[in-house]
Amino acid sequence: MSAIELLTPHLNSINIPGNSQKIYKDECVFSFDTPETDTGLYVSLNSFLGFGRDYVERNYRKTGNAVYLHIRREKKEVPSEQQGDGPEKKITRLAIGVEGGFDPDSCKKKFEYVESYSIVVLPDFVSVPWPSSQLPKIVHSSVQAIIEAQSASKLAELEALAETWDGEARVISKHAENLLQLDNGKKIPPCNWKCEQCDLTQNLWLNLTDGSILCGRKFYDGSGGNDHAVEHYRATGYPLAVKLGTITKDGKADVFSYDEDDMVEDPNLIVHLAHFGINIAQMEKTDKSMVELELDLNQKFGEWVALQEAGSQLKPLYGPGYTGLVNLGNSCYMNSIMQVIFVIPDFVKRFVEDSADIFDSTSPDPASDFNVQTAKLGLGLLNGKYSQPPAEASEAKQITDELQPGISPHMFKALIGKGHPLFSTKRQQDAQEFFLHFINTLERNSRHQNNPSDCFKFSVEDRFQCSKSKKVKYMYRTEYSLPLPIPLEVAINKEEVTAYEALKADAESKGQRLDPSVVVRPKIKLFSCLEAFSQPEIVEHFYSSALNEKTTARKTTRLASFPDYLLIHLKKFTLREDWVPIKLDVAVEMPDELDLSLLRATGPQPGEEPLPEITGAPPPPPVLDQEVLKQLVDMGFPPEACKKAVYFTDNKGLEPATNWIMDHIGDSDFANPFVPPGIDCKTGGMSNFIPNEEAVSMITMMGFTRVQAVQALKATNNNVERAADWIFSHQAEIDSEDTGGAAVGPTFRDGESRYRLIAFISHMGTSTMVGHYVCHILRDGHWVIYNDNKVALSENPPKELGYLYLYQRL
């Protein structure tokens, strides 16, 4: 039977994709095989899902779909004489690997890709060439549409890019509209510039008032200029200068305002340049922008060097457990968390060892199945298939990026970020927030299965003692990480830090900068952080059920259980007084082994008298200033946090409330639902919950009882989508209440309080909005650095500069 005849029985199952149809032609939905893999990629002409060679037969057996488009892509190096330098692209986004951002491949060799196609009929993999005039019309139309369509991954990338923050969004200078320009007859040539006070020909700035060309400030490494431009401003007061070499034909350039001490926008730049005879149509970008220079300097000095171990020639590692992850445009926060997640046996068993069961029981669209995509990621990281050493390559060549491609987790990222205001974009995000988002998503998708995140879960005990009645109340909450404050006031090197800060301030006042390779950071012992966490605090506006009024209470916090794996979160990120997000540049001494017995909760003690339970009608809800509340929400803060800010500042206005937010923005429960202190949300003291009746109706139509629906909606704040998942993952609690038993609360693993450090995640940069994440993992007896797709043996793991630390119980 000919190949064309083999197609005939399957013509009724072949579909032509419509405009809204997702086509997975870049990567297998179950593995990281791509058209560039030796065996290519098989795209179903029925479902338009892509499969690698290891999974296409499984799909055929499960679905009966026999016809696939086989795509094979070969990578060929472009001959050097054809590469050329091309025009240098102006960087407009503080992002990596996205349109307008920094291109990590710009300095690599250039390649071109050649694709070949064929139609394959299973189970015997009979191949039909493409194109072919003998193909039935339905097959031809289906294949043509697949080839011409945008892939699902490309569409997801474009959607994320639409929300990417533009790193060059600058304020318009207050001097731009009425800038003084002297009629001194000065005309600026289009090239061959030189500082008017020295011989420098790089880093030159044109003052837009008098046309003087002077060198800029000296950089960290001694390069740059001799400060002649800033000295000229101090002498004349002429505020705006444009960096020569950054001017483009569209009228864009780096403009600095000395008066405003920042990079600014000058909407009248074309006119201002024309005053000195500069025709922008003739200008070409020949110098690096300040954003590019800042990135270069950050990567050469200080924290960036230490955390990436950039000063060492690190030995690359390959094989199972040593697979890197491609940075999908500022996705390093996700990459680091997922590398650490798959160190833990609970996740390995759930998603790697049991992956066959997950794949066999998948939904019709595995690309949209959280369990499938998590299992795919875990397999890709741990099986070693995508981490092979380059054949017959020297050690020097093995260090190059192009020989360590890593795997690209774009399906996982698109799925876990879908609909999320932060993680659906290509902006840099907080790794700690992503960890909690991953845990929440995992809980919603665990259903009847054991939830591997239980290895992180622990109970926190908050003990309140009423200041007037001296009676006590114990409240418990569930946490997945331990947030520790950083008490700068107990640094062990205060004198050195004070002297360094004085030198730094003096240098900045002179327009200079200290050598960044010599940094004096405050040094804090971890014990000091633990002590600060456990210190008692006074809680204002505490509702005392013994007095039936608000008063103050003394609160102490301890751990009621110790998890198998403890994630410590150092609270390094905060806000300056001007609302600019910053990171505390500190070194915290993190021990390899840790005993947390001092944090062990004791529970109710003999002789303590408990505060009585609230009976009858709950206390009236607090009255909050709605105008201040609206102003805070409009600033972008979580509504629940805004309620707390207004409540705890006694409705005294916007400024006290914003100050409260600044002081508490790092709290682990910052955005949790607001409950006045002293009111237990699990008792009758909680304001009566009113379920959304439309939501109740929708859930009961799924086959659940009204009691189950109300309970689920109460636990998920009337969120229908989450409520259905909640019912599946809390079956024990529901069954107990349905049978009249006592409600079953969350269960916690508990054990000894001694731990060993096995991984840590570091952040380099000034805030969570910018910068880069890397992680170090203790694997096979040695520390390994995972810097996106670069995996290497660590020579000097910077344990004191981390952000998140994973400890395993001994």
From TrEMBL:
Domain UBA positions: 623-664, 690-730
Q: Which UniProt keywords apply?
A: Hydrolase, Metal-binding, Protease, Repeat, Thiol protease, Ubl conjugation pathway, Zinc, Zinc-finger
PROSITE patterns tied to this protein: UBA, USP_1, USP_2, USP_3, ZF_UBP
Which amino acids does the record list as binding Zn(2+)? 195, 198, 215, 228
Q: Which domain of life is it from?
A: Eukaryota
Q: What is its EC number?
A: 3.4.19.12
Q: Which Pfam families match?
A: UBA (PF00627), UCH (PF00443), zf-UBP (PF02148), zf-UBP_var (PF17807)
Q: Which family does it belong to?
A: Belongs to the peptidase C19 family.
Descriptive protein name: Ubiquitin carboxyl-terminal hydrolase
Lineage start: Eukaryota, Metazoa, Ecdysozoa, Arthropoda, Hexapoda
